[in-house]
Amino acid sequence: MATARHCGEEAVTTYFSVTNVTKRFGGLVALDDCSFDIEPLRTSCVVGPNGAGKTSIFNVITGFIRPDTGSVTFKGEDITQASRHHRVDRGIARTFQNLQLFEELTALENVMVCLKDESANDPLTAIFRPFHTNAVLRRKTAEAATLLEQVGLGHKLNAAASSLSYGQKKLLCIARVLATGAELVLLDEPTSGLAAGALDAMVELIHKLKAQNRTLLVVEHNTQIVQRIADEVLFFHRGHLMARGTPAEIVANEELGRIYFGKGASR
Known about the structure:
It is a single chain. The protein is of the alpha/beta class and about 270 residues long. The chain is built from ten helices and ten strands. It has a six-stranded mixed β-sheet with strand order 6-7-8-3-9-10, with helices on both faces. The protein is globular and about 55 Å long. Involved in beta-(1-->2)glucan export. Transmembrane domains (TMD) form a pore in the inner membrane and the ATP-binding domain (NBD) is responsible for energy generation.
């Protein structure tokens, strides 16, 4: 039987690292001395029972909460105390379990507002502002349309976000993340609530994102999906990173199975 590697092993890469992170909310320990690295251009899945600390570690990584102790490092920079905006500028962006969209805007407009304006600080912009504004609008429209095409929403450019199905809204959220230029993409339960067809489309998109030279960190409850998308699995339990390994190693580990599924439960 394959045995999952435990989290005390030596780090493989310094592309992204969480080191000795602890976070408490009153008497609740949400994260307990967690340490792990993520290798670039791979898909790592975060799994574990409810309350294991999966969302908390996402919130620490993206700056929505600060750890009480420990550090977060990305490409050699300590970003533990960095703002959320700085992390996005550096190339880290995420989706949320609760979809965050501008419901009254079109799909195209939702993506356009997330695109960077690389020439915003150009002093010539102030001189030629009318021409600049028109050029930026054309560029952003084209870029947003391309991103929507990539996620499978090319036929919904002018549809209001409120009119999209739940699965389409999830795809739109991912397009918005891609619009930031993120290279480290965090997806929080991307397949939850999806019907079979939409689920397969999401799995295909995740593979496509990896093929486009992105690194992915994915919270996922469905172990069958984990086995389809993950290069590595991080198993959290009670705020502690209990084990890490390949999907096959984690699934084969009987102790982790009992924790995740409960005694006598089937996978």
